[in-house]
Amino acid sequence: MPLFIYVLGLAVFAQGTSEFMLSGLAPDIAHDLSVPMGAATSLTSAYAIGMIIGAPVMAALSARWPRRRALAGFLAAFVAVHVIGAAATDFWLLFGTRIVAAIVNAGFLAVAMSVAVALVGPAAQARATAVLLSGVTLSCLAGVPAGAVLGDCSGWRAVFGAVAVLCLPALVWVFRAAPADTAGRGDVSVRREARALRSRTVWLALVLAAVVNGATFATFAYLAVIATDVTHLPGGAVPGLLAAFGAGAFAGVTVAGRRTGGGQLGRGAALALCALATGWAVLAASSAHAVPLFAVTVVQGGLSFGIGSALATHVLRVATQAPSLSGSFATVALNVGAFLGPLLAGTATGATGDYRGAAWVSAALAATAFALLTVVRTRAALGRVREAR
Prior knowledge:
Elements: H1 3-20, H2 22-32, H3 37-61, H4 67-87, H5 91-118, H6 125-154, H7 156-177, H8 190-196, H9 200-220, H10 223-230, H11 238-259, H12 267-286, H13 290-318, H14 326-352, H15 357-388
């Protein structure tokens, strides 16, 4: 595996820490800026909005840019908006910085995914994608819990500043190690690639990725509040719970990177989705008790990110005629889920007054993904039977 892919993974780690750190900081932000808890958790949705907007737009705009310039520019802008966010005293200014940070994060990730798969052969594309996404899962395992500890000791502003500092080594490495294709890529046709993404196979994987990630973030956005208000754990236990989720996520992505293969979403994917839905239901039913909460959180982290990674890799594999845009569309799908999941969870918890409603929303979304894949596979099987006759 080329060293530069690990450099990209380091940058993704810093960005993933920023994306997910709100789960542990939302109560502090709500108190400091005098806004409701729902408003503070909406910062997670704000980030997802930026990713949804930014991924296709930035991928299209940067398609002909030199890779080094695109990666370094996106990462430098990411640092700048975190400095502004750390100094924000107005909630809406902070909200805006989250959207801008997400837009440049999306641009970086879209370019990084296309560079990573271009640097390796077809057989290693799943592993290259897993290395990138392991930066996200490591941020859940180490970055987010560390941010929660730092936020508890020094306030949420210190965490924003720390993310900016964390990005600097990655920025230096991008300048030094990025592929020097200074001539750009004038042969890229955004319109032709967009047409290639209309395949039913591609869209099935994109829809499933969105629904699965919606299930993931519906509960993840409320995990800290579930721990303190439902399980009645002390605030000091929240970093450990977030680390448990991250440990599972890292294991799930690692396994997916080594085992994902083939061009079809088959029985294994259906079974994984069934297990995912069951796991969220178990978490909802058992979250009043600490031991089951921690145990199921590890399992769900592994299933959620393992399946999400496999679906993202599947998009890249089946959309070979869209090497510049396929990564951005996978990013959009994942972040549509990251936006809608907390939104649906907020509606459910607001109506019931019970934060376990977030996990029930996750269970329903995962069950929807399982049902969709089952219907598609059944129709395909019936089609093959008719052709055989």
